[in-house]
Amino acid sequence: MSNPQDQLSNDLANASISGDQSKQPQQQQPQQQQPYFNPNQAQAFVPTGGYQQFQPQQQQQYGGYQQNYTQYQAGGYQQNYNNRGGYQQNYNNRGGYQQNYNNRGGYQQQQQQQYQAYNPNQQYGGYQAYNPQQQQQQQTQSQGMSLADFQKQKAEQQASLNKPAVKKTLKLASSSGIKLANATKKVDTAKPAASKEASPAPKDEEASAEPEAKKESTPVPASSSPAPAAADSTPAPVKKESTPTPSVASKSAPVSASASVVTADALAKEQEDEVDEEVVKDMFGGKDHVSIIFMGHVDAGKSTMGGNILYLTGSVDKRTVEKYEREAKDAGRQGWYLSWVMDTNKEERNDGKTIEVGKAYFETDKRRYTILDAPGHKMYVSEMIGGASQADVGILVISARKGEYETGFEKGGQTREHALLAKTQGVNKIIVVVNKMDDPTVNWSKERYQECTTKLGVFLKGIGYNKDDIINMPVSGYTGAGLKDRVNPKDCPWYEGPSLLEYLDNMDTMNRKINGPFMMPVSGKMKDLGTVVEGKIESGHVKKGTNLILMPNKTPVEVLTIYNETEQEADTAFSGEQVRLKIKGVEEEDLQPGYVLTSPKNPVKTVTKFEAQIAIVELKSILSNGFSCVMHLHTAIEEVKFVELKHKLEKGTNRKSKKPPAFAKKGMKIIAILEVSEPVCAETYKDYPQLGRFTLRDQGTTIAIGKITKLL
Questions:
Q1: 158 and 173 housed in the same domain
Q2: Contacts 24+ apart (CB under 8 A), 44-49
Q3: Which of 140, 201, 262, 539 could covalently link to 513 via disulfide, CB atoms 3.0 to 4.6 Å apart?
């Protein structure tokens, strides 16, 4: 190597390979043994043109490979090359012909023109078209190339560089060789199997859709695994994280590349957004979430029962309850201390009346629960409706104490109205809890229990509850008998059924649309270093950073933080859960209860006019066209006007009358067109029951219930 010409050729070789010797040390050894090197060639070559990459000796080096490898043809190219990093794998993935030279000043085209038999732009089945003899002839010809020939070839190269290159995608087939396919602009070829940050999605769908994109199917040695190297050297504008299949494209075609990448990214995101229900179960230790609402007449014992359940399940510690007991005693409200767990504000504690819907959270061994404690007073029925719209199961608390049951159930009492409103708001399962059974006037009497449940059972069936969906049980909210543990057989030998929590833990679960389009009616709002909305997710799931639309204003918002039932931050929340979301993009004063957060792809519909089927349950006079009242639809409260009565429905058959009725009165079922003054978020009852049922109220009483049949 002391010869200066040898030194010069070595330097040039180093410059052309530019650091690839470290990756491929085996290339350098044949170089020193080459008998073909012609120093005159090296002197004739002018490096100042910036074409240091063109090295005839480089081809001789590859020629050396050919001669070596023709001896191995008996074992097949593929096996031999696969074991040694392979011609195609090695060069394609580790700075090979196409990618490496493409990045280094277009050496690729030169190689292509000289090796016409080996053309990566055509889809050959493996190596059949690769002819080493022809290759060697061409190499020997190319060594005697003059400078003029070289310049001519260079001009051709420039021209070919300006042509739009065909975008390539690597497909790893089940065989050990890798084929370069001409990728068309179909999404399938560029479709990523799943992004690196993909949430645990159901993988069988992806696998069946594109088996060739599975990396596992190719037994490639780790050192030459295709993805990382290609990601280093590919110049195309492809996002690394979302495309594990390396796509090879020349710089002249960034537009088509980015277009297909966008669709591929969208597909990846869609797959990422799918959530496996099994994974969700594992996440919460197999516990699903149930919202329960305590409802019933004022003083039936709803808050006391809720407070006692929280104490019995360990959600409220003993010290807190003892503190409430002392405070209640000082205030002369000794028997109310358990209700103070639920009724937190001063006014509620002084009057012993719940005013707003109290919320609390507890957990058993099998499930997670949110208690919604509805106010029993008729002044606060609208709050109760908002609470019922978020509940899965209704617990109707009735007092067995003499006089109290009658007050609650007879005219003017709230027991009937609450049961009706719960049914209208989609609470299809109702547990009738006969409370205060330990009272001296009752003393666990079976006769009194049956008297209470029989009357109420007839009424509940009349408003549409199935026999199987009505469950009765005797309890004492104050002593806790029948809440967590079963009632003591000494006190109550005639009841052998489950306790309240035992029944809740073992009842059938609701069908949740975890992968449906996201929908969450806003039930409350607040300002807490930003805008916070709360509500129950009716469909779909949400993650931090998700972009949503707030309807009906069509305001785009971003989810910054998710708070779950226990007020802790969470990364995701699923259908059926009660959550608070901190959102960006809207001011607190610009939204109100009844607005709906929805996914941008499937936004909830907004209407001012719709057709509905209405059953009139309580109406002192009659109603006709132009009648106005208040409508409660999910969490929205709007004034509504009857624009047109279209049909009367016959009792029993539900057949429509041909003539529109002139008026409607109590007990009638009608189809009418209603109009609201402001746009309201609604869906038909058939598509989304939660957003398609409503209650009509007038002068403090519920006059009708209805479901939307058509949006106009």
A1: no
A2: 44/147, 45/12, 45/147, 45/150, 46/147, 47/12
A3: 539
